[in-house]
Amino acid sequence: MTAHPKTVMRALMRTRLAAISPLERAVRSADLAESVLGSRAWREARCVLAYAALADEPDLLPLWKAPGGRVLCLPRTLPEWRLEAHRAGDPCGLRPGRFGVREPADDPGTRVSVEKIDLILVPGLAFTSGGFRLGRGAGYYDRFLSTPGLVAGKIGIGFAFQLVPEIPVESHDMRLDGVITDRLPIPPEFKTLGSPAGDGYPPAS
User: Fold this and answer.
1) d(Cα 104, Cα 86) in Å, to the nearest integer?
2) Residue 178 counted as domain residue
3) pTM summary value
4) Is 102 within a domain?
5) Is residue 108 pLDDT above 50, yes or no?
6) Residue 184 burial (CB < 10 Å; 0-12/13-18/19+)?
């Protein structure tokens, strides 16, 4: 039986992410956080839903050192493969949730409705400059991003080598408004920036 194209791509991207050293990941994460802080999407947002990084994901912890008056939130997993947003003033106080992802406590007082969120920083395994995203397969973000009443900007967050020419797309896959990497921010209007292979995106090393 032939493996699904998404399964093949997920395996490839997990291998590439695992190949970079902790030091390189830290340096790339710091560069990526600087790209986020310098973006128009960040400057214009007052309430931001970020994420608590897995071991192989870009770490956005520097954002908590420069909130600039913004409300910073993190997702919490719910039954039926769904997410909800909670204010997270101190990301160091998180607890392991489903799949070991760190998340806020279940406190109704910190819950934030989707209507109040201005910007969502979305992790993933791969992205295209056109806003398509390959997630880890559980569908949490696709469900959340399709929530009625959500009008926030949706920005993919990944290392430069996670930007690929093409991703297998299905009807339930939610398209993002932009992508920010440690090398290059892709603006929401998705200007033609040339082929990723010719723009200096190196393979993981």
Assistant:
1) 7
2) yes
3) 0.86
4) yes
5) yes
6) middle
